[in-house]
Design goal:
The chain is mainly alpha-helical. It contains nine helices and two strands; from the N terminus they run βααααβααααα. A two-stranded parallel sheet has the order 1-2.
């Protein structure tokens, strides 16, 4: 596994392009783009919400992939370095834009009904860096721990048989 540590393109603070790159990162964080994820973004009118044309959106996705591939070591997995992800998150400092981006990221990540590690990392880093309302944070928790995460109340051992607990 290689950690990407290179210079990626920079976007103007709080620009549609900076916001779009984060949504694109959520889209490819599991290493592939699934049809259900594209469909969700299209259904939510993500481009319009971010102030991007379809062409600009595709340029952002292509640019992100180019940047990631430019720093990859042949035969290795790509892991974005924490500093780079922090820089990309810092490009979106407007609270309203942060809320829009995190909702779009969460919706695209949840589209296939499964949250993979890379997808969870994107959300967790955004939640650690951005100050979001409690209800927005609560909406993200299942995606940080898995969509099927649930806490089952404890029962007495005699009544329940085998032990019950958190299902992850």
């Amino acid at each position: 596994m290689s950690v990407l540590n290179f210079t990626a393109r920079a976007y103007a603070p709080n620009s549609p392009h900076a916001a779009g790159r984060l949504v694109a990162l959520a889209l490819i964080a599991n290493g592939e783009i699934k049809e259900t994820e594209w469909a969700v973004l299209h259904g939510l009118q993500a481009c319009e919400q971010l102030g991007l044309s379809q062409g600009e959106w595709h340029d952002i996705v292509d640019g992100l992939c180019e940047d990631l591939l430019a720093g990859a070591i042949p035969g290795g997995s790509c892991v974005i370095d924490q500093h780079m992800l922090d820089d990309w998150l810092a490009e979106v400092s407007d609270p309203e834009l942060q809320h829009r981006v995190i909702r779009l990221c969460a919706d695209v990540i949840a589209a296939d009904g499964y949250v993979e590690h890379g997808e969870s990392v994107v959300l967790r880093c955004a939640l650690e860096r951005w100050v979001l309302p409690v209800e927005e944070q609560a909406r993200m928790e299942p995606m940080l721990y898995g969509l099927d995460f649930q806490v089952v109340p404890r029962q007495s051992c005699a009544a329940s048989g085998p032990a019950h607990g958190a299902h992850v």
